[in-house]
Amino acid sequence: MSSRKGIVLAGGSGTRLYPITVGLSKQLLPLYDKPMIYYPISILMLSGIREIAIITTPQDRQQFEKALGDGSQWGIEFTWIEQPSPDGLAQAYILAEDFLAGAPSVMVLGDNVFFGHGLPVLLAEAASQTTGATVFGYRVADPQRYGIVSFDECGRVSSIVEKPPVPLSDYAVTGLYFMDGTAPAKARRVVPSARGELEITSLLEQYLEEGTLTVQKMGRGYAWFDTGTHSSLLDAGNFVRTLQMRQGLQVGSPDEIAFDQGWIDQNALVSRVNLFGKNDYGRYLAGLLK
């Protein structure tokens, strides 16, 4: 088992997706054939992580527990942490401090979808770093909308700025963060920004000042979706559908990953097949048994 622990940040009010999120958490919306939160959970599982804290709002917690159970169906363990109010991404490390208990962590945002053939290798490389933080840079056409990382002439990280009016590079920081055990202490030192939030960029700046921030670039062969708008939600769903229909392979299936990793046996997978027996997802899982 990985010594790292996982965090899925699935809080917030989802106001950018109103009216579809008025009665349902954004991270429980369908992304083609699975709940959105399956995709970030699958990233943590691909990183070898079996202890995962899910941070969500008090009013949404029951829905998540119904959708996900305790994690045993995938050979993993969920811990539930309530976020009373969404006060910035860095707040997650303060809320999860007791859960982490000094362990290094991987946090993934509950509305982020990642895909790429080389992803497991990229994740393993980040996980092998015992000190500091590793984040992933992804080239975007509209850098003003993101936290942007810039580099010096030697390729080292020179700055990280939240939503810069004049971006110094086209590389956005994705919603996937590998951090060592000092992350909660650093998060406590973050001062709220002008918009009143504990910004993740302020936390990462502390690692940058220490000289322990690594940025891995996700190149042409990777896809990253931040599904916070109606358009991007549809784009991500269509992307998953296209890949699955063309290749006959699942994207972001915790059931498949758990079985591949040997975390669940055939009997456990059979019970999942029976649960989903009437649809393509269930038929796909049944195919794994052959």
Automatic annotation (TrEMBL):
* Sequence ranges assigned to domain Nucleotidyl transferase in this UniProt record: 5-240
What this protein needs as a cofactor is: Mg(2+)
Q: Which Gene3D superfamilies match?
A: Spore Coat Polysaccharide Biosynthesis Protein SpsA, Chain A
Q: Which UniProt keywords apply?
A: Magnesium, Metal-binding, Nucleotidyltransferase, Transferase
Q: Which Pfam families match?
A: NTP_transferase
Which EC number(s) does the record attach to this protein? 2.7.7.24
InterPro entries annotated for this entry?
Answer: G1P_thy_trans_s, NTP_transferase_dom, Nucleotide-diphossugar_trans
Highest rank taxon of the organism: Bacteria
| Reactions accelerated catalytically | dTTP + alpha-D-glucose 1-phosphate + H(+) = dTDP-alpha-D-glucose + diphosphate
Q: Which residues form a coiled coil?
A: none
Q: What does this protein do?
A: Catalyzes the formation of dTDP-glucose, from dTTP and glucose 1-phosphate, as well as its pyrophosphorolysis.
What's this protein's family per the entry?
Answer: Belongs to the glucose-1-phosphate thymidylyltransferase family.
Give the protein name, as stated in the record. Answer: Glucose-1-phosphate thymidylyltransferase
